[in-house]
Amino acid sequence: MPPMHVKSRFSRAGSIWLILSAISAALVLLPVIALAFQAMQGSEGLWSHLLSTTLPVAFVDTIILLGGVGIIVAVLGTSAAWLVTAYDFRGRKILEWALLLPLAVPTYIIAYAYLDILHPIGPVQSALRDVLGYASPRDLRLPDIRSMAGCILLLGFVLYPYVYIPTRAMFLTQSSTLIDAARTLGVSRNAIFWRVALPMARPAIAVGISLALMETLNDIGAAEFLGVRTLTVSIYTTWVTRSDLPGAAQIALALLLIVVFLVSLERWARRKQRFTTSARRSHNFTPYKVGSLRGLLLFGSGALPVLFGFVFPAIYLIVEAWKRVRFAGISPRLYNEALNTITLAATATIVTLIFGLIAAYAMRLRPGHASQWFYRFSTMGYAAPGTVVAIGVLIIAGSFDRLANQLAMDWFNIPVGLLLLGSGAALIYAYMVRFLAISAGSIEAGFNRIPMSFDQATRTLGETATGTFRRIHLPLSKTALSAAALLVFVDCVKELPATLLLRSLNVETLATHLYGEAARGTYEEAAIAALAIVVIGMLPVIVLSRIGRRL
After folding, report:
1. What is d(CA 22, CA 435) in angstroms, rounded to the nearest whole number?
2. CATH code at 514?
3. In a domain? residue 50
């Protein structure tokens, strides 16, 4: 039993970590509080004006987009997961990891690519007219992809992996005994999917759909490029175009309510889903081997989402980037933008890892309601779209900069300018709020693999809680820390809404460069930046594919 003074030191250290965890939670909650406060400060009649003009159209478009994307990701993700789990055919191993590839393509890049691919004078329609003998786009023109239907289809083909990953994991862990029992009762293999596998996989499907819808709400580039006026786009245009911060805050608050509703709906949908199987008596799901012809058809159907969600856009980006390099080389501006992107993402990753370590380690040191609530508050930023977080951070950073400048003028008669907004600190803060859940979740999972007996042993030897953290937990959590750093870094590189709203003046990243060129219609100028983002986005996909092989 450790001496009393050792217990006292551990208790004091635990209190310090708990206080730091409370600070972490406060930093995440602060933008939401500022957002609500700013929304209430709007001019008289602003809510009624928004309700009669902006909100109805934006709300209806957002609901239609969410409903359409939800249906497509559910169908594509679930059917793809069942395909590679239930059937054994040539090429199945390739499909298992290839179906993850669309995760590497941000939604705004998929819209950027297909806008040019399917343009009336683009490669697809030009080739189609050549084959059919038409000379002009006026003679033959496909439906415009700039539409709600086009936006739903493109987002669905990029976001379905959010359903595919948890649903496939659920199918793989289902006991084959249940399938065998159903077959014994005369249930066909197709009916097994509807009557046994699908009902048991509903919790995983619900989680996947909710994640895909969160990403849909976070999107700003694809929706704007394709002419869909969502609440997210309305927030951006209200602030940037009309410089109406209270109006943007009120629309952001309405969007946040939709997020809360989606999270609540997802939890309600799986409130009674409880399944248990005996690991000792059951064996894993065994796929059914099919013939060559049927296997080819299954492979072709499984490859369609990969082709539309990754292969075609990737080929387009490679071709356009090569054309650009051959014609004019790589612009020096692109090197600066890549450096800005890496610097901001790396700094934000370090900050986010530090706060993730604080939230996770406080849970381990002081398990209880307080640390659990601080942890939950610290991780709630991931559910909020980037525009919502950015508007909240913008309010805080703007207020701080005004106060600091006023104090500097009063005391030293020296203007300090925009300390947070001008230095990029506000953007790094937004990244931290947005992606702290990824960091804390990965690190907590790593800590859970370390037995509590290690902590008790170090306490007996007189080590402090911080010393235990430095000498035991950090070395044993290197894998979890590396995974968290990779995921946070890639998400920071791909993040567009928060970067657009909070970047410093004259500072461009790869994402904002692409957005600007696509908005101007100069697609060839942004191909290299888009390709770089996709290559970086493939890093976590490679990690996921390696993990998937071990399932």
Report:
1. 17
2. 1.10.3720.10
3. no
